[in-house]
Amino acid sequence: MKRTETMRRRRKSMLLACRLMALGIAAIGIGAGSRSVHGGSGGVHAENDRWSVEATAARDCKECPSSKSFQFCGLDKNSGRSSTFVVANMMKAVRALSLHKSKCLILGELTQSGDIATLYDLEARKTADEWYGYHFRLSPDGRYLAFVKFYPRFAPPESVSDVVLVYDLGRSATENRSTPQAGPEDAGIPVFPRYNAQSGTLEPGAGTDKFMAIPPLVWAGNELRFFVRDKDNTLLAVSVDLNGRVPGARVTVRAASAPMAARVAEGVIEPTLQAIDAKDGVKETFAVKQIMKR
Q1: Which of 162, 8, 136, 66 is closest to 119 using CA atoms?
Q2: What is the rounded distance in angstroms from the CA atom of residue 244 to the CA atom of residue 252?
Q3: 65, 102, 210, 264: which one has the fewest Cβ atoms less than 10 Å from its Cβ?
């Protein structure tokens, strides 16, 4: 009880210090015409044994890619020191914060349907990575972020097929890409479809099936589960058993049973995925490979 009260006071002091810093930043301006805007970030908070991070302000910023910048305050519980950092990329609004060790994951809005993830290293005090995607879903232990590959709005139809990816927050930005030069549209290790999971590419293969992922993506412990439909509109249930790693993960694809398909049609997706049993009919299994292309 005493420790909880001490932490509450520390957090209150941290927020006060951060807000005072925010006033100083506002005075010099983050870009011309910057000003505080209400909503979209205040009160979003994440905490672990060592770190506490809170979104403290959102500002208009004419020079920023999204015309907004977002301020965050971090507290190192070991030293009692607080510091602020600013994210000014394509993010339009902050949706959630999460911590994995000293890395702060900021999930935000990119477009009406797309999302953006920003990974900030609190110890190094710099942005470690950023990437785009759809249907972000964080694993229960906060280490893995599953999502569907992002496509530009006007991408040609023949180049669009949903690829499910996993980003491992315990690995570096380079280790979470199939090519070192890959940008924010090509982050993450593909785990489905099979062609992508075993070739390392994020683009659909010529002559291969196209798939449409059905949100939400669901975690059952460290096993990722989701439904897809293939080009014939057949419903498939996919399970990805990470077992502590993304390359080497075991993928199991099942043809959805009639009762399962009926529940999905009714929109009962997450409970249906959670109830998948090992005895359900298996269509194929394969392992995820990471092919690094230079």
Answers
A1: 136
A2: 17
A3: 65
**Residue 222 and residue 243 in contact, taking contact as beta carbons nearer than 8 Å:** yes
CB 284 within 8 A of CB 194: yes
Encoded tokens for 10: 């520390």
Q: What 3-state DSSP class applies to 262?
A: helix
For residue 114, count other CB atoms closer than 10 A to its CB: 20
Q: Are strands 103-109 and 93-100 parallel, antiparallel or unpaired?
A: antiparallel
Domain boundaries, the chain: 2-208
Sheet with 223-229, edge to edge strand ranges: 212-220, 223-229, 235-241, 250-255, 284-287
Tell me, yes or no, if the pTM score tops 0.90. no
Tens-place pLDDT, residues 238-268: 999 998 889 999 999 999 999 999 999 999 9
What's the CA gap between 227 and 46, in Å, rounded? 30
Alpha carbon distance 82, 57 (integer Å): 16
